[in-house]
Amino acid sequence: MNNFLSKITGDKKEWKAMEARAKALPKDYQVVYGEMKKYIWTSSGLALIDVFKGLLDLFEESSASGKKVLEVTGDDVAAFCDELLKGEKTYTEKWRETLNSDIAKKLGK
Hints:
c-terminal domain of poly(a) binding protein
């Protein structure tokens, strides 16, 4: 299980450092980041550490320049998340590939 989590979140120290960065953001950014994390965890699968790093970089730069968080993400935060995840492999995609592969093997194709 630990190896699985490491694949998704990267090194434990790195993850903790990222969480500390998130806690240093203004409150509105913290709220949106937390909600986006939940959304991303449930809809994505692999290479999340890079997605979260990029998101934190964007949020740190935006908050430092005085922008409100919804000026960065827009009101449709789910759509913003979907754009972040574009091109990332999702659990659903992996499950579909596995299902089709298993059936093909069992049917000798």
